[in-house]
Write a structure and sequence with these properties.
Blueprint (H helix, E strand, L loop, with lengths): L1 H73 L3 H22 L5 H19 L1
């Protein structure tokens, strides 16, 4: 009789333990999925912030170059200055072309014109 009672207790304990462990495994899986989605969302936000920061930095650098370009144009000596302006513009275009490999001179000229207009507005 005591063997039957001991066997009954073991069966009841195992019948309770199995669903408890299964529910804990399901809960842990759901928690892991939630944490994974949170990490993915945070990573995406960090990447988008980095891209936005990179664009802002590139624009600031372009503005600085536009200011320098204006200074060079203003202080240039008529003949020697024209050669220097052409050389510096070609150098700036080649640097711009590294960042924009499919860019054309027309696109570069438009971007330079826009940035120069912004700088002139700030200076005036």
């Amino acid at each position: 009789m005591s063997r039957i009672l001991c066997l009954f207790r073991s069966v009841v304990f195992l019948a309770w333990l199995s669903p408890a462990l299964a529910s804990m495994a399901i809960a842990a899986s759901i928690w892991a999925l939630q944490m994974t989605s949170t990490v993915a969302a945070m990573s995406a936000k960090a990447v988008s912030s980095a891209v936005a920061h990179r664009k802002q930095l590139a624009k600031a650098v372009a503005k600085t170059k536009a200011k320098a370009r204006l200074r060079r144009a203003v202080v240039s000596v008529p003949f020697a200055g024209l050669g220097a302006i052409a050389y510096f513009e070609e150098q700036d275009f080649q640097e711009w072309l590294e960042d924009n490999p499919r860019g054309t001179r027309k696109q570069y000229a438009c971007e330079v014109a826009l940035l120069t207009a912004e700088v002139l507005d700030e200076m005036l």
